[in-house]
Design goal:
This protein is of the alpha+beta class. The protein has one domain. The strands form 4 sheets. Strands 1, 4, 5, 6, 7, 8, 17, 18 and 20 form a 9-stranded antiparallel beta sheet that branches. Strands 9, 10, 11, 12, 13, 14 and 19 form a 7-stranded antiparallel beta sheet that branches. β7 and β8 form a beta hairpin.
Length: 325
């Protein structure tokens, strides 16, 4: 599919766990509209719900966007996997969706949803955030326990007392890591052409990673709005990682929705800043950075996203939501 065939489509990039929607079809509902009468099941109508937060009102020629990542790669069949291997000359990357910065690895086992749209302001392509929803849905992921995340020899006495209380007395060692958008949604970049051609930057976004635990507090971040972790994903090659553009294309709802399965986006060249705001007044920053190997230079960090991509024209998405198709 060429870029000229894609840019008129709503790009739905959803990062999540498992398959897209389960649920069985139920009795059809019919709608009277200016085009006549159309009937659809609740399951069929729900396929258009992925586009519900498309920024239709943006002051630009707009293509909507929503995307879903899976924790582990899922092939529709072994035959498709073997065909991909034969075409590319190597096996696909069999790695879960994860982010590694320094010595900390966060497995993206829960859904991370990206919503928004791509529009043109003049000849410049620009990302628009979602309407009435988060552009990136913040989801806490399990991180390595607190006992491995702090070099206690670098804590002040007051911070060490707090650490000993939470770890040795309260046993509060569980830590979550939440990927959040850093700064404005307009900093997100998507190139469908690069995604499909398996070269160049297909998807880039600035993020910050929030670490949460009673000891580190509620403002402990790797990266910030002014100094984010910027990951430029490719479906091609980055260092030792090999991505891919997807194994198959399926047309649903009489061709109004296109689904590309098993995208893998990778990056092995981004840098990661250190933590800020951990402990009381940032009193644990130095101790956490030392334990996690942060800041970490480009080449020492990796990111993998497996996912499924859905596409529909903005016009079709809007009419689908209104029950007209």
């Amino acid at each position: 599919m060429k870029r000229t065939e894609i840019l008129g489509l709503c790009l739905v990039a959803v990062f999540a766990v498992g398959a897209l929607g389960s649920g069985s079809a139920v009795a059809a509902t019919c709608h009277q509209h200016e085009y006549g009468t159309s009937c659809e099941s609740e399951k069929e109508h729900a396929e258009f719900e992925a586009f519900a937060n498309c920024p239709f009102g943006a002051s630009a020629e707009l293509d909507c966007s929503w995307a879903l990542s899976t924790y582990k790669e899922q092939w529709p069949s072994n035959k498709l996997k073997e065909a991909w291997e034969a075409e590319h000359g190597h096996k696909p990357l069999e790695s879960p969706s994860e982010l590694t910065a320094g010595k900390v690895t966060v497995l993206l086992a829960r859904a991370i949803i990206l919503r928004g749209g791509i529009g043109f302001v003049g000849e410049e392509e620009q990302w628009f955030g979602a309407e009435e929803a988060e552009t990136i849905q913040a989801v806490p992921e399990a991180a390595q326990p607190l006992t491995k995340d702090v070099d206690t020899s670098m804590l002040s006495q007051s911070e060490l007392n707090r650490y000993n209380y939470y770890v040795k007395v309260a046993k509060e060692t569980r830590v979550t890591a939440t990927v959040e958008l850093a700064g404005s949604a307009s900093a997100i970049q998507v190139s469908v052409n690069h995604l499909l051609s398996e070269e160049g930057t297909a998807f880039a976004f600035p993020v910050k990673l929030k670490l949460s635990n009673p000891f580190v507090g509620n403002s402990c971040y790797v990266g910030s709005d002014t100094s984010p972790i910027t990951v430029e994903f490719t479906t091609g090659t980055s260092g030792a990682l090999h991505g891919k553009a997807g194994s198959t294309l399926r047309l649903d709802r009489n061709g109004f929705i296109a689904t590309v399965y098993t995208d893998t986006l990778v990056n092995a060249s981004f840098a990661s800043p250190g933590v800020e705001g951990c402990g009381i007044g940032g009193g644990a920053d130095e101790a956490i950075n030392a334990a996690l190997g942060l800041p970490s230079p480009a080449g020492d960090n990796t990111a993998v996203l497996n996912g499924t991509l859905k596409l529909s024209t903005a016009e079709s998405a809007k009419e689908g939501l209104e029950g007209k198709i």
